[in-house]
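Support request, please re-run this one:
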Amino acid sequence: MQFLGVSLLTILLGVIALAGVICAVKLVRAMVVRVAWPRVEAIMVGAITNFFDTLGIGSFAPTMAWLKLRNILPDQIIPCTMLVGHTLPTVAQALIFLALLGVFVDPVLLIGCAAALIAGAFLGAPLVTRTRVWLVQAIVGGALVLAAFLYTMSSLQLLPAGGTAGSLPPSLTIVAIAGNFVFGVLLNFGIGHYAPTLVMFSLMGMDPRLAFPIMAGGGALAATGASFRHIGIGEIDLRIAAGLALGGIPAVLLAAFVVKSMPVEMLRWLVSIVVLYTALVMLRAACLGRRAERLSKVRHRQVDIS
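Re-run finished. Output below.
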């Protein structure tokens, strides 16, 4: 079983590395063709956001806040630019965490969760046009608040705490794979999968550190696939995307070793903070989305009356 795990891990590392190289080549080629060089400000933002992303906090929300504050991009190309910019740092995360910790994770769980995340992201894309995004964000945000509370109680030893396991029993493995499929669907609504993945595996009794190779591996494959398409279409700001990538990769290298060497007790508290932060960001986005929907309805009524 150990040999099978190492073989599957090697294949997964090779696939992610190859996808990362192809993505980097496409990005550099597009930069040369369009004479677009990395923006210094974006390099700094990429370093900061990807450092904390490697700790599980996420990079999209702070990057979005920066782009909105600076007002340097049209809203319609912000998501694609962020995705392309954060893809190579995510690939770096995946390679580091898989190389350092992947051998300690059940290969069935690792491969199954990665495949489920990608499948969910692909199959869930059409749902965005049929569902109120703010409603989904509100539900997930509320669930994460509850999860943060439960996990904090576990850290205070008032409830059973996360364990040190690297695998799960078959029944929980199936639940974890199904959960990653749902997290993949939620990616289409702008809901990151790091926080829910961290708390799910921790509450199931796994070592929180071992959640990182699982969520980074699936995230890297999903992100590179989407980036190929967005770079080809060209509706991104290459100077910002390249800056985020250039600043993010060395920051990931630093933060990954912080996670690896962090005591489990401290990491458990980090999980609580990450999940609560993500929940608050999600609930804020839901409130803004609901407000925008109401304003849109009012405008349409005014147009109909006139």
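The chain is about 80% helix and 0% strand. Residues 2-305 form one domain.
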